[in-house]
Amino acid sequence: MSDHSGASATGSRSSKDKYLVVAIHQIMEEYGWRGIEKQFGVVKHHIIYVKPGSPLDKIELKSNIVGNHMDVDFFGMTPEKGLMDKVFDFNVRVVRKTFEIDKYVTNDLKVTNEQNLRNTIIVAIKQLEDVASKTPGDTSEK
Length: 142
Hints:
It contains four helices and five strands, in the order αββββαβαα. The protein is α+β, with helices and mostly antiparallel strands. A five-stranded antiparallel β-sheet has the order 1-2-3-4-5. α1 crosses α4.
């Protein structure tokens, strides 16, 4: 499905990564996460999500384009419980996922491997929510 010939891959790299970020955003919203702040850049994108009823206050998605890959950091923020959380960010957990752009967006800007993308995002969210659900003050897992 992905054309790795490179014919127009370089010319549309920035368009392809934006399509991938939009696909990730749509999946996040399908799972109840509402995007409250969105910033799309040339090589970096940043979106903040909230979801009522989640053990997380918010998830910040920060992506960075590195060659033909996009590194996406999912920052899960739990409520701050005290000064130590504010000073040392004990209330923040990060899950990084790396996506090969050409695997998920074709040269004609169609999203492919959507189920794989969906599964990867669900796993990242679940990892963050599982850590947030642990006993308050437990910072043994980072």
